[in-house]
Specification:
This protein has 679 residues and is α+β, with helices and mostly antiparallel strands. α4 packs across α8, α13 (375-405) runs antiparallel to α17 and α15 (442-463) runs antiparallel to α17 (473-493). It is flat, with a radius of gyration of 32 Å. It starts with 6 loop residues before the first strand and ends in a 14-residue tail after the last strand.
């Protein structure tokens, strides 16, 4: 039986403050959370949305060390970038705070202390890698060595970025400290652990029995973890950046970031509502919703709830509608490779187009599986949907009103059967749209909202008021009245998705903000109301704008190839006599064509200074035939002939394989006589 709640607390995963926010974060967490919160506000419900920057952990200390600054400098920089860019996209937090705040430090410390005093932790002494010169224990990221799986000599202690395998620092071959380069030693250290296994039965019932309505990707991942059984997990670590463990004998230790960060939701709420925060966390009439990405499911569905259960006074989340991952142009988004579209850069490159990004990310939301963002799709959705459907309908309705009625809402006269059918169809969308929003199906909800614009477009196209204006102005009045009422409805339906555009539309219609209950009404505007001068809601995005973004990504891709290029190992030694057996010569390409039924092969005619020869080479992927004519190339002249696709090849063209696998034909830097030998 569904329960009615008095209020809703929406939380969003805390972005890590060692870099800006990219479109993957937005599609996975922040745009869906904002849509849902705006929808509840439109309904007049009591709802707050809290968020903040996650500012502790090893990656921040590593970045600070590389830049020669303090960790606080790093988090101050990126907290501002993240907060400002979120606001720029209209992510409407009631508070966006941070985990370095005094409020959070006190809240997290008190939370740990209460669990400690209740005896909820296990104390263990284990061995960890220790750098004797730096006089500190090494977090996994501070250990490098050779990957035992692929042989990469630059693997980290938590993961090999070459083969993607998850590792423990002690798995590495020849481990070294990333701080001093020394070989670390094993040393005893004491830590406190959360016995997650103790809470497994309660978690199993709470999720697998009581929350079968959760999204299948969330429910399935939780079931997988529970079926493998939970193990105790350390809540403290040896590090000098973080919230100090607030008990005696824990000097030099901080709260593990996975324990510290989710408490940020609580501390942010306390900062926002110092006198009323508890009713959003401890009142059974509050509904708590966590918006996260799939990489955070285990923390928000198992670990954080176990912490709340252990504390004893908090409500558990009612739903955790986690999304999957968004890829970029067919490749996984990677901050380390700069393969991303950064929000602050988008806002600078596309001023006034916040809603275009919100629209595309929602339309492509990775709700149940990974999805892909492409710039061509971004352009197509803007031009073919926002401009051609939503923007076109609104503009025509408002322009015709100014043309025929001096910008005043005309009266609605007698309705035809077609009018009534259109109104009924329009009103019928509301229930489907509301249901999709209530159940976190935002992609489907957006499609329903756009369906309203399609209905309006079809209505104007079918009734053709511009033609009727010559013979039946009374009918034109009714048509445009209904069209304007649809525009007012669109301002409601699209407000959760496109807040900037709907504000602009409301201003043009001369109406204040409306609530969700008005959706489907056809008396929002009154006869005689003044419509302001129409402006385009959206504008076409041209090919050159998109090409500039594609060119940027291509530059990044090439930079990554170059930066990550590692020459192949030198082959086995050969003697001078072995080399001298090869007769390498220079020839001039006199003709070149593709070999039929062989995508990779080119047939080259070579002037070798003697009688000429034919060579077949597998370089068709990298050269057009006409580009090679007249070019001088090096070739091995004394290879025995071989036949390819019925063509006898009399030698082999020399090519260099570039970092990206591209073959580049080798030749002299200056012109020489065909047939000269390479010494």
């Amino acid at each position: 039986m569904e329960k009615n709640f008095k209020r809703t607390l929406v939380t969003t995963a805390l972005p890590y403050a060692n870099g800006p926010v990219h479109i993957g974060h937005l599609a996975g967490v922040y745009v869906p959370a904002d849509i849902y919160t705006r929808y509840l506000r439109l309904k007049g419900e009591d709802v707050i949305m809290v968020g903040g920057s996650d500012e502790h952990g090893v990656p921040i200390t590593i970045k600070a060390q590389k830049e020669g600054v303090t960790p606080q400098d790093i988090v101050d920089r990126y907290h501002k970038i993240i907060k400002d860019s979120m606001a720029g996209l209209g992510i409407s937090f009631d508070i966006y705070s941070r985990t370095t705040s005094d409020m959070h430090r006190v809240t997290a410390s008190d939370f740990f202390k209460k669990l400690y005093d209740k005896g909820e932790f296990i104390e263990k002494t284990t061995q960890h890698l220790y750098d004797e010169e730096a006089n500190q224990f090494l977090a996994d990221r501070y250990v490098t060595g050779t990957c035992p799986h692929c042989g990469n000599e630059h693997a980290y202690g938590d993961q090999c970025e070459a083969c993607g395998t998850s590792l423990n620092a002690t798995d590495l071959i020849n481990p070294k400290s990333a701080i001093t380069g020394n070989v670390p030693v094993m040393k005893d250290t004491k830590h406190w652990y959360m016995p997650l296994d103790k809470w497994e039965p309660a978690l199993r019932k709470w999720i697998l029995e009581d929350h079968k309505e959760w999204k299948t990707n969330v429910y399935g991942q939780c079931k997988s973890w529970l079926d493998e059984h939970l193990q105790p997990r350390a809540v403290t670590r040896d590090l000098n950046w973080g919230i100090p463990v607030p008990i005696e004998g824990a000097e030099g230790k901080v709260l593990y970031v996975w324990f510290d960060a989710p408490i940020g939701y609580i501390s942010n709420t306390k900062e926002l509502l110092p006198n009323d925060w508890e009713k959003y966390w401890k009142d059974k009439d509050t509904r708590i919703i966590h918006f996260i990405g799939k990489d955070n499911i285990v923390f928000h569905c198992l670990i954080f709830p176990a912490m709340l259960m252990a504390e004893g006074s908090y409500q558990l989340p009612d739903n955790v509608p986690a999304n999957e991952f968004l890829n970029l142009e067919g490749d996984k988004i990677s901050t380390s490779r700069n393969w991303a579209i950064w929000l602050h850069e988008y806002l600078a490159d596309f001023p006034g187009k916040q809603d275009v990004l919100r629209y595309v990310l929602t339309a492509n939301a990775p709700e149940t599986k990974d999805n892909d963002f492409t710039w061509r799709d971004f352009q197509a959705r803007n031009n073919n949907e926002l401009v051609a459907i939503l923007g076109n309908f609104v503009n025509r309705a408002l322009v015709l009103t100014h043309k025929y009625f001096e910008g005043k809402v005309p009266a609605c006269g007698e309705l035809t059967d077609y009018d009534r059918a259109t109104i009924d169809e329009f009103k019928g969308v509301k229930a489907t749209l509301s249901e999709a929003l209530e159940t976190f199906h935002f992609r489907a909800a957006l499609a329903e909202a756009m369906k309203l614009a399609r209905i309006g477009n079809k209505y104007l196209a079918d009734t053709e008021p511009w033609k009727l204006a010559k013979t039946d102005m009374a009918r034109v009045e009714t048509i445009l009245n209904l069209a304007l009422q649809m525009c007012a409805n669109l301002a409601i339906a699209f407000e959760p998705f496109l807040p900037f555009s709907t504000e602009k539309l409301r201003n043009m219609l001369g109406i204040d903000k409306l609530d969700w209950n008005a959706l489907g009404n056809f008396d929002i505007l009154k006869a005689g109301d003044v419509i302001n001068k129409p402006e385009l809601l959206f504008e076409k995005i041209e090919d050159d704008v998109i090409q500039a973004q594609l060119d940027r990504l291509e530059r990044i891709k090439q930079e990554n190839i170059i930066n990550n290029f590692k020459p192949k190992a030198i082959g086995p030694q050969c003697t001078f006599d072995d080399f001298m057996k090869l007769d390498i010569r220079v020839g001039t390409v006199t003709a070149c064509e593709k070999v039929k039924k062989a995508d990779k092969l080119l047939c080259l005619k070579i002037d070798d200074g003697i009688k000429g020869r034919t060579i077949v080479s597998g370089i068709a992927k990298y050269y057009n035939p006409e580009d090679l004519v007249g070019k001088q190339v090096c070739f091995i002249a004394n290879f025995p002939p071989r036949t390819f696709k019925g063509i006898e090849s009399q030698g082999m063209i020399l090519s260099a394989e570039d970092a990206d696998g591209r073959l580049v034909v080798v030749g002299p830097t200056g012109t020489v006589k065909p047939g000269v030998q390479v010494k």
